[in-house]
Amino acid sequence: MQTSRRAEASPRSGIREMFDLAASYEDVISLGIGEPGFQTPPHIVEAGVKALREGHTKYTPNAGIPSLREAIAHKMSDYGLNVNGENVMVTTGAGEAILLSLLVTTDPGDEVVIPDPCWPNYFGHAAIAGTNVKLVKTYEEDHFHLRAESIESLLTPRTKALIINTPSNPTGAVLSRQELEDISRVVLKHDLKVISDETYSEIIYDGRRHVSIASLPGMADRTIVVNSFSKTYAMTGWRVGFAVGDSNAITQMAKLQESVSSCVNASAQQACLAALRGPQDCVKEMVEGYRKRRDMLLSGLQEIPGISCLVPEGSFYVFPSIKGLGLSSREAAMKFLREARVVVVPGSAFGESGEGYIRISFCGSREDIKEGLNRLRQAIKN
Ligand SMILES: Cc1ncc(COP(=O)(O)O)c(C=O)c1O
C-alpha cells in the first residue's frame, strides 16, 4: 500500500532501532533503553489487580477518573503549581500527553522549538502534528543546559511553542530556577506556549530540587506540564502519564482523546491513584539506587580511554563524549554491539548536537552495568 507523506515523514526512533538490531545478537547487555530495572512496587500492583477484581473494567471519562485527576493536581503543589482536577488530563504515557499538547498549541505549518539533543519522539510528535521543528543547540561546555538567548535567536512569527525537558533525556541536565526565569522572559516577550516535559522530575541527584517553569510568574496559563508514572514508579508498561495546564487546553486535549483511544486503561488509573496516595519511600529508594548506579558507571567510564563524561544532574542516563575514539556515534554504538554485545544509543539518534556522544542508561541492574563496563573496556582496548 502506498502510505501517506505524513507517515513517511515520521522518523523512526534511533533508540528502538538499536533495540531491534540487538535482538539478532545473543548474550546482549542492554544499557540502551530507559526502562527501570526495578519492578513496580507491590502495593501499586495489588491496587491494579484489586481494581480489575472490583470491576474497574469499563471506559472512564476521556480526561481520566476524577479522583486521579485530583490526586495529580494535589501532587503538583510540590512543584509550586496551584491547580485542581480540571487542569489535569490522564494520558497514555507522557508521550501521548506531548502529542496532544502539540496538537492544541500549534496548527500545521507553525513552528515548535525543540532542544537538541532531545528525546527523539518529539520529532515524531511534530511530524504527526504537521509542525515544523526548529532545533536549539545545546553544548557540552554548557553542561547541555538550554540558553534563553539561543532560543530567542531562532524565533520567527510562525513560532508558537517551545518544548523543554528537565531533567533531560539524554543529557541528564537539570535547568536551574535562574535559567528557567531567563527562558520564561523570552516566552512572555514572544507570546509562546511551553510544553514542559518533566517526566524525570523525581529522579534528580545531589540535593537539587526540580523547578517547573509553570510555577514562574505569568507562566501557568501558557504552559502544559507533562509528566508520567513510567519512570517515577517503575511503571513503563502500565502506560499512564498526564498533562497539567489551562483548563480550556485540557478540555480540548480530552476531546482529541476521544478520537485516539477514548481513555486510559481503567485499572491502570486505579493503580496510579494508589501510587500517589501510598507511601513514597519506594521512590526515594529507587532514586538512591539510580544514584549509586550512576556513580558506579561514572567511575568505570573514567578508566576507559577515549571516553569522557559529565555528571548527570537528573534522569538515568549518562551522555559521554566518544570523540576521543575517532568514530562517529553510530559507528561506536555498532562496534559496541558487535564486539562487546553491549547496547548503547548513538548520540546522533537524539539530534545533530548528539553526534560525538553515546547515551548509556543506568536504570538497569548493577550486574549489567558492571559487566557492560567490563565489555566496553575490553572492546575499546582491542
Ligand atoms: C523525556 C521523555 N519524555 C517522555 C517519555 C515518555 O514516557 P512515557 O512512558 O510516560 O510515555 C520518555 C520516555 O523515555 C522520555 O525520556
TrEMBL record:
Aminotransferase class I/classII large domain sequence ranges: 27-376
InterPro entries given in the database record: Aminotransferase_I/II_large (IPR004839), AspAT/PAT-like (IPR050596), NHTrfase_class1_PyrdxlP-BS (IPR004838), PyrdxlP-dep_Trfase (IPR015424), PyrdxlP-dep_Trfase_major (IPR015421), PyrdxlP-dep_Trfase_small (IPR015422)
Family annotation (Pfam families): Aminotran_1_2
Gene Ontology biological process terms from the UniProt entry: amino acid metabolic process
Required co-factors: pyridoxal 5'-phosphate
UniProt keyword Cell membrane, yes or no: no
Record's keyword terms, sorted: Aminotransferase, Pyridoxal phosphate, Transferase
CDD domains per UniProt: AAT_like
Annotated GO MF terms: pyridoxal phosphate binding; transaminase activity
EC number: 2.6.1.-
Record-stated family: Belongs to the class-I pyridoxal-phosphate-dependent aminotransferase family.
The name this protein goes by in its record: Aminotransferase
